[in-house]
Amino acid sequence: MKNRASVIFTTYNQPEWLRKALWGYECQTEKDFEVIIADDGSGQETRDVIEEFKSNSNLNIKHVWHPDEGYQKCPILNKAIIATESDYLIFTDGDCIPRKDFISTHLKHAEPGYFLSGGTLRLPLNLSHQLTREDVTTQKAFSLNWLYQNGLKRSNKSLKLVKYPWFTSFMNFITPTNASWNGHNASGWRKDIFAVNGFNEDMHYGGQDREFGERLQNFGIKSKQIRYSAVCVHLEHGRPYKTKESIRKNREIRNYVKKNRIIETPNGINNHHNETKN
Fold first, then answer.
1. CATH number listed for the domain at residues 5-271
2. Greatest Cα pair distance in the chain
């Protein structure tokens, strides 16, 4: 039988962050899901973490890997999508720890003809390192009082962790932030993702997730805001792969997609149909 959902996230040589993210999936209230780790060429340390969880946890994990050829997030995501066996796909990052209701919330709000746009709260570097397995298991990592006591600066962004149904519904309704496809927290139907040919492999860092969502919208898929309902905390890290050239090129691609109402990228999932699943 199919799982209710497939969770896909990318990782690259961040074994400490990957371990913390996987702790979060061990705590999920919804148990009927698979985890697809889209590995953009990590080394043995990352493989060791994955094998540790495969052996010692109840998580259903698939490790989809390709050789390190620089920043290749879109190709590895497309390979991971092919490896999924669920009708509903949830996308996040390997440096994001999901709250225990993360998957159940995405499934609760899933609706044909829509994709979902969730939220994240960035943690400072020292607090990212500080988080322990117990902090994740007990959900202290999502308690505002605990986070403030341990170095998180107070801001309106922290309101995403307030967990009252009336409040989250109200905030989802009034937020001025567009319900865009976010790489750290978004979900949609597998058939819709295949219809637009997945992620555009001409794109590197900077807006490639948004472009994917814009093509879904060109296809007629609407977006739904769950920024304050489905949340994760984002562990801080450097971004050496971010360049002005990639930002410029991606902006040009997005402008072309919007202007010409492009639906299907010519350079996407269809590149990998004959590849073996890991």
1. 3.90.550.10
2. 51
